[in-house]
Specification:
alpha/beta, two-stranded antiparallel sheet, globular, 10 strands, 8-stranded mixed β-sheet, 176 residues, Dihydrofolate Reductase, subunit A
């Protein structure tokens, strides 16, 4: 059985996860030391991470690797530096990568981003949970939550958590 794939991401009110140039500076005003929006508990609950190549490059550009030694797969057709042994590049399709992670006994995988990779996982019907932190900002354009339309899908609301700064975190599970 494949691991659960959780798309845990911040999204603007108009559906963007980054500005047109991939920037996430618009999130800075909502990052405070006294509120992690459940991130620590979520991170403790996952076994592995998956990234698109641009999201991976952005994270690496921030400096120190924030994900410890959890296994990471980076979907890329380009050659990228992977300075840590737990980070592996892959050109495989999402179902193959999930089968590989399942064979390692991993149960919960964080789909970190981006929109193209999320669309691919969604097309394959592989995202089991969505945790969307809706940020009260309209971006003029950018990287959409999903890069392309996908199949119809029904979701069941697991929870909704409003925060005093206007952020609302929505947690859905695939209803199928």
């Amino acid at each position: 059985m494949n691991p659960d794939v959780i798309y845990y991401v911040a999204v603007s009110l108009n559906g963007y996860i980054a500005t047109p140039d991939g920037g996430v500076d618009w999130l800075a005003a909502y990052q405070t030391p006294d509120e992690d929006y459940g991130y620590a508990a979520f991170f403790d609950s996952i076994d592995a991470l998956i990234f698109g190549s641009r999201t991976y490059e952005q994270v690496v550009g921030f400096g120190a690797w924030p994900y410890g030694d959890k296994p990471c797969r980076v979907f890329s057709r380009r050659t990228l530096a992977t300075p840590r042994p737990e980070i592996r590049l892959t050109t495989a399709e999402p179902p193959e990568v999930l089968s590989e992670l399942a064979a390692q006994g991993l149960k919960r995988v964080w789909l970190v981003g981006g929109g193209q990779l999320a669309a691919s996982f969604r097309r394959h019907g592989l995202i089991t949970e969505y945790i969307l932190s809706v940020i009260p900002v309209f971006l003029g354009g950018g990287v959409p939550l999903f890069a392309a339309p996908g199949p119809e899908a029904s979701l069941a609301l697991i929870g909704a958590t409003p925060y005093s700064n206007g952020v609302v975190q929505l947690h859905y599970r695939h209803a199928g």
